[in-house]
Amino acid sequence: MSLIQRNLIQRDRASLWHPYAPASGDLPLWEVEAADGVRLRLRDDDGGRHEVLDAMSSWWSVIHGYRNPVLDAAAKRQIDAFSHVMFGGLTHGPAVELAERLLALVPSTEGRPRLERVFLADSGSISVEVALKLAVQFQTAAGRPKRQRFLSLRGGYHGDTFAAMGVCDPVDGMHSAFPGMLAGNVFAPRPPAAATATAEDIGQWRAEVEELAARHSGGLAAIIAEPVLQGAGGMFAYPAECVRILREIADGHGLLLILDEIATGFGRTGELFAAGHAGVVPDIMCVGKALTGGYLTLAAMICTGAVAETVSRGAAGALLHGPTFMGNPLACAVANASLGIIDGGAWRADVARIGAGLQAGLAPARELDAVRDVRTIGAVGVIELRDSVDVTAVTAAAISHGVWVRPFRNLVYTMPPYVCTAADVEQITAGMAAAVAEVHERIPSRSGGAA
């Protein structure tokens, strides 16, 4: 059979590998024929076409929608100038502007060192790698070379590269697949859930984390956490007070605090950065995903001036990392346009509106017997099942209701683009609930009858 005779999905299965998937000739796939605004036009294996709302923002990044005219124009202008130059020994306007924009937006508070230095990376996972390297180099330069490990939270996710994997949850992460290759880091209990946490729960958690930090402080470089919301580790929201506790523990033991805002940054949780819920300024912060509005891969590691100066005065004399595509001008130009939209401030009302719609629209799913929990934070909505989700069946069922979702583990969730209308959010939530009911509901719901 010639390539012309075989459809695109068949050709894909014969040659490509997809995320967290086997190399398989029958992998469930849908071809994207077009993307515009908040909608995707899909084609299935049999040639059928479907228009769906993208409830995932393409893994949480396309916050301004597809074919956004402001981002399109920025990309075209930069292409007409130059698309890439090396960042070693050279600089350019888009990178400098992006650094200045980021430093104007990141959290700050009276009495804390400011975030003052930006390292531009290829992806979120790489920005975490750079942050971890920086923390170790900092401790060495400060005369504490034995501080090589990290205190991380159970339930956390920080990326798929090796050092990043090493600070992901040791059970639900990928530690068992790579025995002996991941650093022996220290894992604190997952914080209590935001919806049910009491002062006693938070106090007990604090005591456990404090004890771990004290016991291992001689070998720890930093604490790393996703503030307020653990994303790929379970869409788990926890109290902002816990972030303040991590800041205090880090300060008390000479540790740096790394906050991973790759999923939570740029408004997703209702604050520009999730650290804002806690009023905390980290020593190192990682951002990515929505940085370019989902147009191009780009991330950043941002640190305080004190950290940068200490490392620069160390024996190495430099931060030991330098990607080929660091500071790519095209990506930086689009990121500047995306941050320009963020600067306009409409995101705050958009996220509040979407959050209210998610709360109302997902509430009926609580009546399904297959559902353990329904929760929202900012523009994030989650249906947690009692058992593992049937990813293929739920995805197909949601498509039949005009919604694209990508469930994982026991979660069917949404992080929609900020430009979704109230009607869009209503369709997303109804489609999610209907898909769960059609696939997983085998016992009549408490409301009387199958949904």
UniProtKB/TrEMBL annotation:
Substrate binds at residues 59, 157, 289, 322, 406. It is found in: Cytoplasm. GO terms for biological process: biotin biosynthetic process. Its cofactor is pyridoxal 5'-phosphate. It comes from the Bacteria. InterPro entries: Aminotrans_3, Aminotrans_3_PPA_site, BioA, PyrdxlP-dep_Trfase, PyrdxlP-dep_Trfase_major, PyrdxlP-dep_Trfase_small. The record marks 20 as: Participates in the substrate recognition with KAPA and in a stacking interaction with the adenine ring of SAM. One of its GO terms (cellular component) is cytoplasm. SUPFAM superfamilies: PLP-dependent transferases (SSF53383). One of its GO terms (molecular function) is adenosylmethionine-8-amino-7-oxononanoate transaminase activity. The modification N6-(pyridoxal phosphate)lysine is found at residue 289. Pathway: Cofactor biosynthesis; biotin biosynthesis; 7,8-diaminononanoate from 8-amino-7-oxononanoate (SAM route): step 1/1. Pyridoxal 5'-phosphate binds at residues 124-125, 260, 323-324. Its EC number is 2.6.1.62. Keywords: Aminotransferase, Biotin biosynthesis, Cytoplasm, Pyridoxal phosphate, S-adenosyl-L-methionine, Transferase. It holds the Pfam family Aminotran_3. CDD domains: OAT_like (cd00610). Its main location: cytoplasm. It catalyses: (8S)-8-amino-7-oxononanoate + S-adenosyl-L-methionine = S-adenosyl-4-methylsulfanyl-2-oxobutanoate + (7R,8S)-7,8-diammoniononanoate. Homodimer. PANTHER family: ADENOSYLMETHIONINE-8-AMINO-7-OXONONANOATE AMINOTRANSFERASE. Catalyzes the transfer of the alpha-amino group from S-adenosyl-L-methionine (SAM) to 7-keto-8-aminopelargonic acid (KAPA) to form 7,8-diaminopelargonic acid (DAPA). It is the only aminotransferase known to utilize SAM as an amino donor. Belongs to the class-III pyridoxal-phosphate-dependent aminotransferase family. BioA subfamily. This is Adenosylmethionine-8-amino-7-oxononanoate aminotransferase. It comes from Pseudarthrobacter sulfonivorans. The gene is bioA.
